[in-house]
Write a structure and sequence with these properties.
39% helix, single chain, 147 residues, binds 4-nitrophenyl phosphate, Rossmann fold
Amino acid sequence: MYKPGNVLMVCLGNICRSPLAQGVFQNMSKEYNIKVDSAGIANYHTGHPPDKRSIYVAQKNGIDISKQKARQFKVEDFKIFQYIFVMDKQNFFSLKKLCETYQTNSLIQLLNKPYEIEDPYYGDDKSFEIAYNKIYQGCKRVLSSWR
Ligand code: 4NP
């Protein structure tokens, strides 16, 4: 991971973790002329704004993610994004499965490698704080590999 490139953050629903990851990475990577987006493996929440608890934890850290809209991952994303960062192993295997029938050079990797970022959806505010901190660490990890 030596070269800056377009980044797609992926989780299951695209309403809790990956919108936060998009916001944090956009905020940290302003020096680069890259595209940063997020998507979900599932389509349950297409068109929805992020979960209120994600909006809140982002806002506490000076980041506005309230205008984001959830969307589902599509194979065309493999052409646009050189880096696809996933939150957990389930996301990882879902994308690897798509690669069995779709050729891509995109790097698919756990954002906070080697750790997973657990789904906070059924948790409490503390679960969102934990997810935020792990996302922040993961974004730092990626950026430090580019510098
Ligand atoms: P996310 O969390 O993958 O971090 O966006 C989830 C949000 C919603 C659901 C699952 C995970 N859901 O089952 O609706």
